[in-house]
Amino acid sequence: MADEKDKLKVVGTRVIRTDAFDKVTGRTRYSADVNAVGQLFGSVLHSEYPHAEILEIDTSEVERLEGVRAVVTREDIPGAKYFGGVIPNQTVFAVDKVRYYGDGISAVAADTPELAEAAKLLIKVKYKPLPVLSDAREGLRADAPKVFPEGNLCKHHKVRKGNVEKGFAEADLIIEREYSTQRIEHSYLEPEAVVAELSEDGGIKIIGSIQNLFSARRAVASVLNLPLNKVRLIQAPLGGSFGGKDEAVTVLFCRAALLAIKCGRPIKLVNSREDSFRESYKRHPYFMRYKAGVKSDGTFTAMEIDITADAGAYASMSPFVTWRSVVQATGPYRVPNVKTDVRAVYTNNNYTGAMRGFGSPQVNFAVESFIDEIAEELGINPLELRLKNAFVDGDITATGQKLNHKVSLGEALKTIAERSDFVSKWETSRKSSSRDVRKGIGISCSYRGVSLGAEGTDAASVLVSIQSDGSVIVETGLVDMGQGAATAISIIVAEGLGIDIEKIHFLNADTSRVPDSGPTVASRTTIMAGNAAKNACEILNERIKRVVSGEKDLGFEEKVAICFREGISLYAVGHYKSPKTTWDEENGYGDAYFTFVYGANISEVEVDMRTGKAKVDKFYAIHDVGRVVSLSGAEGQVYGGVAMGMGYALLEDFHQTDGIPDFKNFDEYLLTTAADIPKMEVEFLQNPDKAGPYGAKSLGEPSTEIVAPAIANAVYNATGKRIRNLPLTLERVLIGRELVRPSKRGSEIARGEK
Amino acid sequence: MIPEIEYIKETELDLALQHLASDKKVIPFAGGTDVLIELRKSKNPFDRKALLDVKGLGLNDIYIHSDTVIIGAASTHTEVEDNEIIKSKLPVLTKASSLIGSKQIRNRGTIGGNIINASPCADTVPALLLYDAQIVIRSLSEDRTVPLSEFITSPYETVLQKDELVTEIRAFPVAEDYGWGYYKLGRRGAVNISRMTVAALMKVDGEGKINEIRVSAGSVFPITSRISDVEKMLVGEKPKAEIFRRAGEIAAEKMIETSGRRWSTPYKESVVKELIVRVLNEAYSRCKNDDLS
Amino acid sequence: MMTFLDVRVNKTRVRRFVPAHFTLLRFLRETEGLTGTKCGCEIGECGACTVLLDGKAVNSCLVLAPEVNGADIWTVEGLAEGFDLHPIQKAFLDNDAVHCGYCTPGLLMSSIALLNDDPDPSEEKIKTYIAGNLCRCTGYIPIINAIKEAARILKNEPRPLLK
Ligand SMILES: Cc1cc2nc3c(=O)[nH]c(=O)nc-3n(C[C@H](O)[C@H](O)[C@H](O)COP(=O)(O)OP(=O)(O)OC[C@H]3O[C@@H](n4cnc5c(N)ncnc54)[C@H](O)[C@@H]3O)c2cc1C
Ligand code: FES
Ligand code: FES
């Protein structure tokens, strides 16, 4: 396909994002910017306890208040009381009990938002507080408080390959370590917002900041007891999502709809940042035990991994997130004998779900730190140990899958190491004995299954409609959440039809106009919607060719005009279904994903040895994306992914004390600012994949999933201190453990750290 | 969301003071960067508060009067940061102001509000303590001046009465041959609530001995204050690494003596030592003394 | 309580009664329908609500509407003239500094405040001026590049930053 690259006109170039003009002029209407005539304002009353039975809800006082138009509770739900894409156990309004501090009890609609917010405080709720389960590691004990009557195990995944006992017996060295990662907040800059109104057809129309329109529609329809065709959901432009605007917004859709039905007026429901922090789901905290057997030459004989993931109060995407973890837990390395167990356990913490990376940042932090620790034990440098074990073409993964595509991991590692002068910097830094400031360098790498894999059926559709003047409208159910999907799909259509990208107009998704294309997750948009878009273009090109084949040298507009005159429809639905994947749940193996991407990161840090402050000085990233679709977009994804990964590595920790979040807003929950950003060097490898449109695979998630271990390894290189728990705060770097304010249960809890 | 309020603005100080003297609860505010945030958290939104805007009262002049620098209480951090008099006479304050919050916050937040809010991590306080700052307070009945060191009585509490306004801050510059140091430790590159802040002024005499020294620390003690034990120890000593380390140790001992061993002590103990050393080194490096060198 | 406001918003004089507890942010969005200015935290931490108040960048979520009586306010809507973009907007487009775009209006206003104060800012200074504007998408690098480019362009063809 090397020569195909030279033929590409739009793919791989720098283009201006299709939606950027409206965004720089302030004209883009995000959900909170939408107003409906006659709208009222909603506000949600949250639980006062992380775990309690609800004995009584008294709304009489608030109902009497002037300006209050409706109050809804569990009593007002006509249909299903529980929703959820995988395991429907999440409530719209608490039914019999609350399971976390962000559970909604009731919602109020009033003439003004400030009245709605004040009025809800007049609702009287009687609770019977229950013991709180705040540590997932305690969740499977017989005496643990039960979040659900069936018990606290949400999902158990396993991978089995070979015989680990035998593998350990063959090893020259056995090494065991424990790692943990923290809960973090997506921190999309736009808090969730929706506007719901009754529509003329006896149904409901809701516009909102939703990422997965179709799963939200299923939930709304079942809660309201309406057929799907009466529930019309429209996606407003998203002010960021990163996996976060799924159930957290679905719940708002349902609540706003219930209020709208009750008072017959449009309802606007906008989360404050505090509401958003309190109620939205987060990235799963993981507790991970790794044990490896290695030969003294550095080859692995076995790996045994045991992971507990904190699922929080509801299932959400936990079963899928933890599945990706179980598949990728051993990292991109040849290990002949593997035994991996991942258990997602319910607790009374915020529920956890999809977030950029989707179960990989946690295991990557562990395995990539672990590799460095093993290298240290063996006296081999970490690059060499990686290269020795890294997958090459035709290798078999931990799940028994043969990698029958171009595996570029070795190339990625070698290129980035050379570019950053890794080995010599690494050698120099380890010898530093400065007591003030030390430099360090760290490396990490990964492989990542593309798209959903055996997690679910993977198919998408794209509508391409050529107008009589040659301009084009594109629509799909996969959404742009700021990651540039609209631009990427537009590029593919421009390439496919052989026209300029300016000719293309990409519409936001609307469930009543486009077919269900599954969720916008797992960095699947480029590959899925891209292929579907390419398919639509092929259908259209074929039709055009049939009509104008004899006539040479016609421009696109002229060809289109002829088709219109001839009565040929230039509207096509492109469809794509991903290649087959398999999974044997019982025995823990299968061809998990139809293809994989590879990448490596290197971080240079400077550590203040006396305050524990670690600063990232320079960052290198290399990713094989199959084919770059939008060059600027791809670079942007990496810059953003690195910044987010730096937050994960150094700053962010959505800690909860006995179920209650320690943080309410961005004053305490710290994100990276412009002043924290290092110089970055980004490079792409392009090994086109036969499954991808023009060979393109994915990038959104790989860009953030190995940042933290690169930084942690660099800090080790500088300080000689291994930190196995994220984030690397001032305290951890200086004294090796985190300090937290005393909780009710003890005076100084060091979070179970060793 | 900010609940309903009453908004009051006056251009005459006496009229403003009359509102404060009335029976009604009136909250003065300047930049509002603390007040509005508190108001938004209000547990009882139906209890309507009255806010008195002090920005129209002309309290944002910065000038020198017989060797005293007078800073209007409602001067914003940006006004302080950019002011030439302060740059030359009170450089530690320039530095402190420049590190507060973000540009947007510095454009609104005021020096008066910062002091009166009395947070243990208020960044201008350690700087102002070095210059023996005094707080000028007015009510309808009385004018009084209180040293900053006595103004804050406990975290978030001051001697200010309900009917009083702070009109200005007076600071007393030191001679040009003093060196200074300031260190604010935060978790990220900018927009930090201080984890700890240490500031120092130092003068070295002809024999190369510390002639005068002032050291203050924020977020170390419940109330931001000078560390007199450290100052006493340093006077008359030659500035040397081991002396500075000893100073750091005294500060850490003092911290534990005042607050006891708390959950944060394992970290703060060694870091406060270090920050003291850094700031003393910085101050010493800026000491101008022709006899030395 | 309602108060009377007489202000200029993007050159246009506006006289209105507004609730005294409205922030400048709510006044712009809800009374004036200028929804380009965004709300991300309401406590001065995210910068999405940044506007120019008498030429200075402020968090409009931390300013009460009655405080701005008599003032001159600029929002993102005041930058372009029809389809004709301001150089800073153009630089954001050309440098791919706009991803989800939620931080963009605030960052544009902070950038203008910066270029007003210093037409030739160093990278350090750029970071100082935009550190109060959080962006979760771009990693800031494209934004910093955009500001540098805008500065270059404006140096070659000087013009008042706001007409
Ligand atoms: C995002 C953000 C970042 C911040 N970062 C920092 C930081 O880095 N360092 C730091 O120290 N602070 C920081 N702050 C806190 C705050 O901005 C400062 O304390 C600021 O100086 C307060 O000034 P103000 O004028 O806004 O106070 P206001 O909110 O107006 O008032 C504060 C207090 O002072 C009283 N008051 C104000 N003026 C008078 C007067 N003249 N007479 C009597 N009483 C008066 C008020 O009643 C109130 O009690 C930050 C705040 C935010 C929102
Ligand atoms: S909304 Fe004003 S700073 Fe975040
Ligand atoms: S572009 Fe999304 S927050 Fe900046």
Question: Could you characterize the architecture of this molecule?
Answer:
The complex is a heterotrimer of chains A (754), B (293) and C (163). With 754 residues, chain A is α+β, with helices and mostly antiparallel strands. Helices cover 29% and strands 24% of the residues of chain A. Chain A has a 7-stranded mixed β-sheet. In chain B, α5 (91-98) packs antiparallel against α8 and α11 packs antiparallel against α12 (265-286). The model of chain B has no long low-confidence stretch (mean pLDDT 95). In chain B, β2, α2 and β3 (49-53) form a beta-alpha-beta unit. In chain B, 37% of the residues lie in helices and 25% in strands. Chain B has 3 domains: 6-56; 57-171, Uridine Diphospho-n-acetylenolpyruvylglucosamine Reductase, domain 3, CATH 3.30.465; 179-285, Enolase-like, domain 1. The longest helix of chain B is centred in the last third of the chain and has 22 residues, at 265-286. Chain B has helices at residues 13-21, 35-40, 77-82, 84-89, 91-98, 103-108, 111-117, 124-130, 148-151, 228-234, 241-259, 265-286, and strands spanning 5-9, 26-29, 49-53, 62-65, 68-72, 134-138, 143-147, 152-154, 157-158, 165-171, 179-185, 196-204, 210-218, 225-226. A 5-stranded antiparallel β-sheet of chain B has the order 4-5-10-6-7. Chain C has 163 residues and is an alpha+beta fold. The chains are: A alpha+beta (754), B alpha+beta (293), C alpha+beta (163). Chains B and C meet through β1, α2 and α6 of B and β4 and α4 of C. The structure holds flavin-adenine dinucleotide and FE2/S2 (inorganic) cluster (2 copies). Flavin-adenine dinucleotide sits between chains B (27-35, 37, 54, 73-74, 100-101, 105, 108-110, 112-114, 116-117, 122-123, 165-166, 192-193) and C (43-45).
Residue runs with pLDDT of under 50 for 5 or more positions of chain B: none
The structure class of chain B reads: alpha+beta
Question: Could you tell me how far the N terminus lies from the C terminus of chain C, measured between alpha carbons in angstroms?
Answer: 35 Å
Q: From the 3D coordinates, which CATH architecture of the largest domain in chain B would you assign?
A: 2-Layer Sandwich
How would you sum up the global shape of chain C? globular
Quaternary assembly: heterotrimer
Count of separate DSSP helical elements of chain C? 5
Secondary structure: helix percent of chain B: 25-40%
Determine and state the CATH class of the largest domain in chain C: Alpha Beta
- Major sheet size, sense and barrel closure of chain C: 5 strands, mixed
Lateral arrangement of strands in the main beta sheet of chain C: 2-1-5-3-4
